[in-house]
Amino acid sequence: MSETIIYLDNAATSHPKPESVIQAMVAFMREVGGNAGRSGHRLSIEAGRVVFEAREKVAALFGVRDSSRVVFGQNATEAINLGLKGFLHRGDHVITSSMEHNSVMRPLRALEREGIELTVVPCSREGFLDPEKIQEAIRKNSRLVVLNHGSNVVGTLLPISEVGGICRNHGILFMADAAQTAGVIPIDMDKEKIDLLAFTGHKALFGPQGTGGLAIGRKVDEKTLQPLKRGGTGSRSELEEQPDFLPDLCESGTPNAVGLAGLRAGLDFILGVGIEKIRDHERKLTARLIQGLLEIPGAIVYGSGDAEKQCATVSFNLKNWAPSDLSFRLDEEFGILTRVGLHCAPSAHRTIGTFPDGTVRVSMSYLNTEDEIAQTLQAIKTLARKGA
User: Fold this and answer.
1) pTM passes above 0.85
2) Of 4, 100, 142, 305, which sees the most CB atoms within 10 A?
3) Distance separating alpha carbons of residues 61 and 275, to the nearest angstrom
4) Are 262 and 248 in a shared domain?
């Protein structure tokens, strides 16, 4: 077993985290530790300040003018469930794509059994979506379109700006799943006409696991939103009814303040480096990986094949190798950590033609290096020769 590790599973969770993220979380535990919004003493107030600053930074990143419309939760999955279950009712029609993660597909299938109508618009074998197909799928009772911004399987970017414009023209809500793109690709909710933006903190935002949320656009009436849970918020304690204002409407229970301290530091890291610089570095790594894979006999690369049209996630297979065996050997012999299988996105794998075996997925971050990609390509070449 290799003693060195090259971590290439950043689409699942980013690793390593910037040192500043670790330090911020340790400092919170040692020096703060209070329960945000639950008491009037100095440590509770300081914890509340940490949460508020994290909310402000998320709002700034996504162009949300009122930070109270950023609702924190555990992850993008919880945020997607809030957006779907909070706004949809029996008889509503929802449109999505064939490239979605199960965080979208599973709640939609459950809602379909409860009387929601669902249309899954097919994407191309490369993972691209034609916005006109969204236009064609709209019905009189269409209420919501939900799409991922970047595929967690092949990285392909979907046309969220164009779809946002279509939805706005038809008076339909548009929800974008930015789990793979938040922190890597600039997102402005107003400009791209996104009404609901689900994000996670533990991937490209460099925060810890257990952080994420839903950003709610200014055109959305929060009075129509049903929260996933109800309980203590630290506000309006005299009432036995849930507060009807954001973010308290959707944030019951003690917040993950130590996690949000880490997320705040992750956002500071991103803003300090600059999203464009991060994107440029990841684009170069992606282009190098795709080019190198295409030069290996027996390698099959899925998706766009163009680093400009995707985020830093690449799926491939190798002739004469089962994906699971290849990923295992990369780990055991070379210390290269990838993810194998269906990546919680069976519909996407059916779209690209890799169901049920799946693919080997390589997903990079800003903290990966060109030398690591070169070592990875050399390892795959070595295994390709062994399997020939």
Assistant:
1) yes
2) 100
3) 10
4) yes
